[in-house]
Amino acid sequence: MSGNIIDGKAFAAGLRARVATEVAVFQKGAGVVPGLAVVLVGDDPASQVYVRNKGKAAQACGMTAFDHRLPAESAESDVLELITRLNSDPTVHGILVQLPLPGHLQASRVVEAIDPAKDVDGLHPVNAGRLALGQFAGPDGAIVPCTPLGSLMLLRDRLGSLTGANAVVIGRSILVGLPMARLLIAENCTVTVAHSKTRDLPDVCRGSDILVAAAGRPGLVEGDWVKPGATVIDVGINRVDTPSGSDRPYKLVGDVDFATAFEAAGAITPVPGGVGPMTVACLLANTLTAACRQNGVEAPAWLG
Ligand code: NAP
Predict the structure, then answer these.
(1) Which of 11, 82, 168, 271 allows an S-S link to 208, with CB 3.0 to 4.6 Å?
(2) Whole-model pTM over 0.90
(3) Residue 206: CB within 6 Å of ligand 1?
(4) Under CATH, to which class is 146-277 assigned?
(5) pLDDT tens digits, one per residue of 238-257
(6) 167 DSSP assignment
(7) 83: DSSP letter
(8) Which homologous superfamily is 29-115 in?
């Protein structure tokens, strides 16, 4: 069997176009332009690229992007003061604090300071709690973290109903693994969450119809871990050095050994060009959802 590639880049482009259309409808109806504030503390080069891309993507679909940069040595009180200001700013509907934060700042305290209604990363305990409770719909539904939401969209698009599928999620982080598992349970999958202490991970993976890898370990999942015909979602983004003399000093690879897994899988996301672009597109969708709810307007049903 030879896998089909799931083109996350193309799907994300379609989602962004849909967000742009929905932004125009919302703006016309409510007279409000959705606003996304992105906060970067420090000058980590990768984070600078991420926040620039997020801001540009927001503008490209008709939103206002607010770019807030704070020096790496900022005190917690400086960051919290900015968040308090953004919470009460009616032109800001979504707030994203780029993680990781410099070591002296506690991410949980910063995230908890964000108004849950504006928490477009879906990391605030109120949103995580609503997700855990399976509270998705309506104005009080969870804002779902972008990467798992985007991964679920790709799975739904490829497989239609996920009911009854055996799913394995490798990773149990608050950002990816846990919300992914919760979403798959809501899709009526039978879910196993694997982690660094899991015994015989290859064997656990071989039982899965859906395999989501979010471990941050380059090439962890080998082809013979993949059940023939399974759908593989590779969330991992890892920088690995390239041989000397290459054009670039590093390349990005996923948590799945693509060459071997491709042969076994029914469908598989590449890295780059799989889940990554979906994360940004879902951030835009979440921002519009937040703007709709804050203005008493029904938000689009992104998952159909
Ligand atoms: P994380 O917080 O470091 O969590 C990694 C998880 O993987 C942990 O639960 C860990 O287990 C587990 N794990 C680590 N090594 C393992 C191994 N050898 N076998 C089985 N499980 C193992 O990372 P994260 O934030 O969830 O991110 C995971 C990956 O996704 C990273 O590569 C990250 O860059 C990528 N990512 C991509 C996007 C995107 O847009 N595509 C977005 C977010 C993250 P323990 O709990 O036991 O330590």
Answers:
(1) 168
(2) yes
(3) no
(4) alpha beta
(5) 999 999 899 999 999 999 99
(6) E
(7) H
(8) Leucine Dehydrogenase, chain A, domain 1 (3.40.50.10860)
